[in-house]
Amino acid sequence: xxxxxxxxxxxxxxxxxxxxxxxxxxxxxxxxxxxxxxxxxxxxxxxxxxxxxxxxxxxxxxxxxxxxxxxxxxxxxxxxxxxxxxxxxxxxxxxxxxxxxxxxxxxxxxxxxxxxxxxxxxxxxxxxxxxxxxxxxxxxxxxxxxxxxxxxxxxxxxxxxxxxxxxxxxxxxxxxxxxxxxxxxxxxxxxxxxxxxxxxxxxxxxxxxxxxxxxxxxxxxxxxxxxxxxxxxxxxxxxxxxxxxxxxxxxxxxxxxxxxxxxxxxxxxxxxxxxxxxxxxxxxxxxxxxxxxxxxxxxxxxxxxxxxxxxxxxxxxxxxxxxxxxxxxxxxxxxxxxxxxxxxxxxxxxxxxxxxxxxxxxxxxxxxxxxxxxxxxxxxxxxxxxxxxxxxxxxxxxxxxxxxxxxxxxxxxxxxxxxxx
Length: 421
Ligand code: SF4
Ligand code: SF4
Hints:
Helix content: 25-40%
Radius of gyration: 24 Å
Bound molecules: iron/sulfur cluster
Shape: globular
Number of helices: 16
């Protein structure tokens, strides 16, 4: 029976995957026990907690979460428990609450914002439009940058990306000034970016450590595992620089005791050779490898299959007829280096769908404008922007229906990062 302060604890009905997810959310201190309908499991342990029988559950009379993904089975158990006077909720009802809460949130603010401080990149990746870049190089004015970041911190705060998928923030000639801006507002920001790392070469140890110190998360693109494979994927002969900078990154994190999370994302045309290489094995001992990717998207038809090395391929998704909105514009407000906001920061490198302009509007005016809402709701409205029609990055908003996002706030970091942890 319950002792003293254990009245606030919960019981998780279902010692399986869903049960583990609920356990991770509530944490060890709040979980009293698991329950299984199969009484032969009673007395054993799951996630370090005792498994009790239904009879024991009824005796304890604690709030119970039915962690069973099948909605019909869960509903049946719920009815049975409620008839016995047990207050309970199902896993699916919890997901409904998560979805509702996040929908209410994104009706008023993005989950995160990304600012492209510079619109170019020194790499020429075979799978990237940057190789065919026709944009006039632009570097965001730092007063504009400061105004946008300060407004974001003041209005909403939370996850802030600098850089975009078509540029590299380390190439920004006034990056150290941006870092000063971010540092002043850091208490209201969770900062991240993606980089091929090469441009770190131009910074001294002190400067690079200063840059790294404002970041919470960095994804490093590793385009190969040796000089040849790197050159073929990244389009530049820079494997040695990359390797050197990775070593330096590790050293600086240790020397300066920096608290930033790092993922290494390999892009390759030969997964087996990549995973078996000395380089991969060396890197995986000191950094987390998030993926080894051989499939790429086409930047709305800008890249052709024939341009990729054998072993790499293009992903295509035919999105016409999909009824669920894409999560990308519903989660992220994307500001280009000229200060304009685009509907989709992931892919709209040519600013085809501008939804606002930070020179003329505040961030909340942009997010709540008709243009922005139209873009966010394009799929449910059945008016698909051209850039979405075969975009392999399409992800339905239902990905937000995840129990790990139950208490999510933008200060926790990128929602997909939180989901993956
Ligand atoms: S590093 Fe990124 S932005 Fe630069 S060319 Fe490669 S994919 Fe494009
Ligand atoms: S489908 Fe692609 S282009 Fe359209 S919003 Fe989603 S990620 Fe962006």
